[in-house]
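WP5 quarterly update. Target: Sensory rhodopsin transducer. Source organism: Chroococcidiopsis cubana SAG 39.79. Length: 124 aa.
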Amino acid sequence: MQPVGHTKWAIAEGYIPAYSNGPEPQFTSHETVCILNAGDADAHVEITIFYSDKEPVGPYKETVPARRTKHIRFNNLKDPEPIPLDTDFASVIESDVPIVVQHTRLDSRQAENALLSTIAYASN
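Structure tokens (predicted):
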């Protein structure tokens, strides 16, 4: 299969609520980057996090195997440092091969959960 996607993506909006409502981990409020690698080579992905009041942090490194998808919760990113809860952020996702990136948020602060999903901005 021909590779599909781009090598650089941006998600301008990010926020992980400080608390959740419901059983964990299914209903833990979270931000997720969903990555599709439809190509024949593994995708080596780097995520950089941007804040309004401090310098960017990263890269957070992930590998998405060839012809696979991977959902990465921003809540679970720990190295080089955890992403703080209750803090606005944005992200840039770079890959050495073309990928497709989607952004999803689950906000479970109230019993009526809110789910948001959108395609990321492809910059090349």
